[in-house]
Design a protein that fits this description.
The protein is built from three helices and 24 strands. It has helices at 31-36, 149-163, 222-226, and strands spanning 8-11, 15-18, 22-30, 41-56, 59-76, 88-96, 105-108, 112-125, 134-143, 169-178, 187-196, 201-202, 207-216, 220-221, 246-257, 260-270, 279-283, 287-290, 304-317, 325-326, 330-340, 349-355, 357-358, 365-366.
Length: 386
């Protein structure tokens, strides 16, 4: 025997909303079931909160900040009836979101948790002390509305992706002296990471990057240099594949709950290794550079020089995380992190690029479906709760 239809059904479009927009939906009521379940009234509630919970030395504090609260009454007994021959009554509703809401967000760690959650709940009110109300809740995914530089940046990046033009680059450089062991001369490694000179970094659009690595050996005599196999790398070797380079987006959180405060950090996305990664690698043959100039000694076995090895990796990444934001109890920041490993203790070269992430959109979009305002390659779900 089939179960009876629910007295109350809540229908919302599967949409990524932006702060300041209108949220429209519909509540479907089975009036016969409403009477059988002794429901006298139906209303909908829009709620949004930023919540934190921190634990330190067996002390736990919680903090909740109200972000939005709105209610709308939809039906009461004796006020509206379904059309003849039907038990179903459809009642639309409409809420206006405040313009400066933070994005939906969720974090859980060992001693801390934080969330920014929004929802719409349909409530069937049942009178009586021992009668519990009926509730149907649906969460909302919300990001900040971007009317400024993020929209311009997204359009610029979309044009670059469509035309293949070379962008103007923002480059971070890190140079280190390293050696294989505790003694000996130092070799030199140089790491460059480049992304387009757009700020902030928008979501929903491919962002190109270039990683260039150059290594220079310790000075060698020509005789010793010739003893190396031509098809094998020399310390310090340049990475031969993108999987050996760790380029990712990382997040830093500043949390507060009552009297407690905590910082937390973690990985968000990896861009050079893992499933779905596509990176073009260009590993050049090593190059001999003489240190003797044009002197006659340059051709002798005792002449000194260095081997130079180069590798270049090109790819794109798409941001699908909650944008940078701050409330009174949660602050979320991002940076790009690059680590290039080299043999030897403590020889890994690391650099960071602080990055502000924005939504890149100024109107709601249907989740999981391409939108005219969002490239089809980046129109999947944001990494947002729920």
């Amino acid at each position: 025997m089939s179960s009876p239809r629910p007295a109350i059904s809540l229908h919302l479009p599967r949409t990524l909303f932006v702060a300041g927009c209108v949220v429209e939906g519909e509540v479907e009521l089975d009036v016969r079931q409403l009477h059988e379940d002794d429901i006298h009234e139906v209303h909908v509630k829009l709620r949004g909160h930023a919540k934190t919970e921190l634990t330190c030395d067996k002390i736990t504090d919680r903090e909740t900040i109200r972000l939005v609260r709105d209610d709308a009454s939809l039906w009461a007994r004796g006020t509206a009836y379904p059309p003849p021959g039907s038990d179903t009554l459809r009642v639309p509703f409409r809420f206006q979101l405040p313009p400066h809401l933070p994005p939906s967000f969720q974090y859980r760690g060992a001693t801390a948790s934080a969330s920014v959650m929004y929802s719409i709940t349909a409530v069937g009110v049942r009178p009586g002390t021992l009668s519990f109300n009926r509730r149907i809740r649906q969460p909302l995914a919300i990001v900040q509305k971007d009317d400024g530089p993020g929209i311009i940046a997204r359009k610029q990046l979309a044009t670059l992706a469509a035309t293949g033009e070379e962008p103007s680059w923002r480059t971070e450089l890190k140079e280190e002296k390293i050696r294989r062991g505790l003694w000996g001369d130092y070799a030199t490694v140089e790491v460059r990471c480049s992304i387009p000179t757009v700020s902030p970094l928008p979501s929903f659009v491919p962002i190109p990057f270039v990683i260039k690595i150059k290594t220079t050996t310790t000075p060698l005599t020509r005789a010793k240099a010739g003893a190396y196999s031509p098809d094998k790398p020399i310390f310090p070797p340049a990475p031969s594949s993108c999987g050996a380079v760790d380029f990712r987006l990382r997040r830093k959180l500043f949390l507060r709950a009552g009297s407690l405060k905590e910082k937390a950090s973690g990985d968000v996305r990896a861009f050079t290794n893992g499933l779905g990664v596509s990176v073009e690698a260009d590993v050049a043959e090593k190059e001999w550079l003489s240190l003797e100039g044009e002197s006659k000694k340059e051709k002798t076995p005792e002449a000194k020089g260095v081997w130079i090895q180069r590798a270049t990796f090109r790819g794109t990444f798409v941001l699908d995380c909650p944008p940078t934001f701050a409330t009174d109890n949660i602050k979320c920041e991002y940076h790009l992190s690059l680590k290039v490993p080299f043999p030897g203790l403590g020889n890994d070269v690391k650099l960071t690029m602080p990055s502000m992430v924005t939504s890149g959109i100024n109107e709601p979009i249907v989740r999981d479906e391409p939108s005219p305002s969002v490239p089809a390659t980046a129109s999947g779900l944001l990494d947002l709760p729920p």
